[in-house]
Amino acid sequence: MLVLIILAAVSALWYIRGIWPVKGLSYIDPDTLRQSDSKGDQKLVDVRDAYDFQKCHLQGAINISIGRLPFVWRKEISSGDSVVILADSLRKSRKAARILRKNGFENLKALRGSLCDNRTS
């Protein structure tokens, strides 16, 4: 019985962490991102799997899957960069933001809305 209570508590904490906001993370919609004049100043980090990235991605985006992000982010981005996180769910965006915040990133945005439509490449 105690094991079930512990498992329920862990599951609840896992769920709450997934929906809890990330300090300093702001959101941007796809149209605003496409029209932004400062695209060159922002690094687009797509945390989806390589298969999904190949099917549909934004031009110039860097693909680092969420599982690899804690280990390989240093090869593509630095903590001083302004980063826009591209993911297929809000949970993944927040998880990526937590990983990057933990590593010193301060200027983080996440894409809110669908990444794949007729205007992506």
Question: How would you briefly describe this protein structure?
Answer:
This protein is an alpha/beta fold and 121 residues long.
Present the secondary structure layout.
Elements: H1 2-19, E1 25-28, H2 30-35, E2 42-46, H3 50-55, E3 62-63, H4 69-72, E4 82-86, H5 90-102, E5 108-111
Parallel strand pairs: 1-5, 2-3, 2-4, 4-5
Task: Give the H and E element order.
Answer: HEHEHEHEHE
**What is the average of the pLDDT values?**
86
Task: Report the portion of residues in β strands.
Answer: 15-25%
Largest sheet: 5 strands, parallel
Computed Rg: 16 Å
Count of helical stretches: 5
Instruction: Summarize the amount of helix as a percent range.
Output: 25-40%
Widest sheet: strand ordering: 1-5-4-2-3
Shape estimate: globular
Number of strands: 5
First and last CA, distance: 52 Å
What would you call the structural class? alpha/beta
* Unreliable segments of 5+ consecutive residues: none
Explain how this protein is built.
This protein is α/β, with parallel strands linked by helices and 121 residues long. The chain is 39% helix and 17% strand. It has helices spanning 2-19, 30-35, 50-55, 69-72, 90-102, and strands at residues 25-28, 42-46, 62-63, 82-86, 108-111. A five-stranded parallel sheet has the order 1-5-4-2-3. Helix 5 (90-102) links the parallel strand 4 (82-86) and strand 5 (108-111). The mean pLDDT is 86.
Keywords:
5 strands; single chain; 5 helices; 121 residues; five-stranded parallel sheet; alpha/beta
